[in-house]
């Protein structure tokens, strides 16, 4: 059963809420994923390799910076379009969505939002075209959920900054041409700097032996007295809210993206259950299979509506960070449960690479951790509704 037989579930006619332009964007990315991703992704995961040959094409289909203004090479599209692109990419594989999330929300967005005009013109068009790849360095070995404690720091040396420290678990680390690095100045204030590949003292060793997101590059960033030119600092942002504003955008994209993985698992399990016979009838005819499938389509529908509503709130600039946290947390959780239940429906076949389910399931184990863990997002909701901070 090939994934290109994919039949997109739309139980509550959510498509009626989309414009013709949204549907066109979605169908073109879906067609690209069917043609360019599905045939190669299983092997890329086996080899633990990011399909770098697709980067330029991701630029061509508009996956990098869809909501960045056209003036800077972006798509000039709305946030629902961005979400739909993430959804289609993640139906292919979370690694593709990760690459596009990082490039769009964690690299292009901060340059666009916090950068100088020179920085925007220098980097954004090349990033949009996929001629340049970016990474985002916030997490450190000792500071994951609590990035405010970061130790990476820089000193002002007049015409340059001297950067020291290390970041860990960084998507695109080894193939990035530029990295947005969040570090503290002499006063302990968090600032964002653009570090370029090849700067003396900057290395990016790869993190190998992952059982999740195997088609995505993850690595460390090590800064040993790196001289960063003074024009590479973001002038317009200080404090932890800078990187976290970027995370709002990436988390939003994930809330949409994981629906793609969930739909792929559900669709595969539904078709398999209608074909596979045991005890002389399709396993779809057993109540316990139907319970799984019915619960899956219910959760997919709720997730679709949540993502769509969040998109409209973002369009009006009214989506709160806590609403984004709720959507990221809920949609990743249901996607992971749907992957697990779908795998059960396929029995032994579910563990093979002949079907996409096990791959999605393993990927989602990272997605539930990065961009804020499942529990951190729960605490953000808890804080928002009670006013009580349970982090510390
Ligand atoms: P706290 O004191 O709450 O806040 C510090 C400052 O930040 C502001 N703030 C926000 N601003 C905008 N949007 C948000 N969502 C914000 N959350 C907080 C806040 O108002 C404050 O501003 P100011 O001006 O008063 O200073 O911070 P805290 O130290 O208590 O920490 C809490 C926080 C928010 C860091 C924690 O809740 C959290 O989110 N931890 C998770 C860290 C995380 O998500 N890391 C992700 C790293 S990047 C990544 O995973 C990429 S994966 C890429 C891929 O492959 O797809
Ligand atoms: P920890 O913070 O050590 O958390 C461990 C456990 O403790 C979790 O269950 C957590 O929920 C819990 N916990 C922590 N604090 C609390 C609390 N106050 N109350 C209750 N429970 C708590 N980072 C980047 O900066 N850039 C990237 O590009 C990037 N890409 C990534 C790619 C992958 C594949 C992965 C796996 C991670 C990536 N990350 C990236 C890092 C990611 O954001 C962190 O892993 C994540 O924020 C969690 O940090 P941690 O792993 O250090 O876990």
Could you give a quick summary of the protein structure above?
The protein is an alpha+beta fold and 392 residues long. It has helices at 20-47, 55-60, 79-92, 94-114, 117-129, 241-275, 287-315, 321-345, 357-367, 374-386, and strands at 134-137, 153-156, 160-171, 178-184, 190-196, 202-203, 218-229, 277-278, 281-282.
What keywords describe this structure?
four-stranded antiparallel β-sheet, binds flavin-adenine dinucleotide, Butyryl-CoA Dehydrogenase, subunit A, domain 3, 10 helices, single chain, Butyryl-Coa Dehydrogenase, subunit A, domain 1, binds 3-thiaglutaryl-CoA, 392 residues, 3 domains, globular, alpha+beta, three-stranded mixed β-sheet, Butyryl-CoA Dehydrogenase, subunit A, domain 2
Task: Explain what this protein looks like in three dimensions.
The protein is of the alpha+beta class and 392 residues long. The chain folds into three domains: 14-133, Butyryl-Coa Dehydrogenase, subunit A, domain 1 (Orthogonal Bundle), CATH 1.10.540; 135-232, Butyryl-CoA Dehydrogenase, subunit A, domain 2 (Beta Barrel), CATH 2.40.110; 241-386, Butyryl-CoA Dehydrogenase, subunit A, domain 3, CATH 1.20.140. The chain has ten helices and nine strands. It has helices spanning 20-47, 55-60, 79-92, 94-114, 117-129, 241-275, 287-315, 321-345, 357-367, 374-386, and strands at residues 134-137, 153-156, 160-171, 178-184, 190-196, 202-203, 218-229, 277-278, 281-282. It has a four-stranded antiparallel sheet with strand order 2-3-7-6, covered by helices on one side. It has a three-stranded mixed sheet with strand order 1-4-5, covered by helices on one side. The chain has a two-stranded antiparallel sheet with strand order 8-9. A hairpin with a 2-residue loop joins β8 and β9. α4 (94-114) packs antiparallel against α5 (117-129), α6 (241-275) runs antiparallel to α7 and α7 packs antiparallel against α8. The radius of gyration is 21 Å and the shape is globular. The model has no long low-confidence stretch (mean pLDDT 97).
